[in-house]
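re: that chain from earlier
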Amino acid sequence: MSAPLTPPPPPHEHSARDAWQPPAHGPLQHSGSTGPAGYPRHGWGHDQDGPGMRTEVREAAVTAVAVALGGVLLGVLWWWLAPRVPLVGDVAGDTWVVYFKDSEGEQAAGVDGTFSLLALGFGALCALVAFLVRRRGGVPLVVALAVGGLLGSLLAWRLGVWLGPPQDVMAQARSAGKGVTFDAPLKLSAKGALLVWPFAALVVHLGLTGLFGPRDPDPFAPQGPYAADGGGQKA
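^ sequence. v structure.
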């Protein structure tokens, strides 16, 4: 008598534990800093540096214009506060001669000194205001302070000369008469004074940024569960 035939084994069935499970971190996502499944993103989205730089350049342009317009006030103050240089006209034959009434006076040097001191104050004030408005600084802002300060100095110089006495000294002497004192035209003899405003703005802004500006994070600071404890053991 033959043994019964053994039935064939049932087809292979996958158990519940063999079923495919989705990743623990969830479905694929596009985040701001990582790609699918948490991998770093390469070339996804827009570059974040572009809009920031454009904003800085736009703010710097506005700053440069505002600083340069401050030259109007500097020119008015220079014309108002600068000492007057007295001149006297005389006639030698048919020719008018103009000379200083006080040949040893220091009024001419005081004109340059007044402009320099005012420019120094304007530069420090502009740097302080720029730092308070925009503490994070940046190269565009520094360039704007320098360019705006130089343009403001040029504007103040030309405006003060225009507001001061006429430039035609001989005409003034003839109009005043022989031996009559009149004021010399407002003149900036030391052209280096035009650089006082931008230089002061750069130095003051650099000092304020270094003392009170935001600090960059320490690249060597411990991160995660590990800290510099003893020989570098786990904290």
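Residues 49-81 form the longest helix (33 residues).
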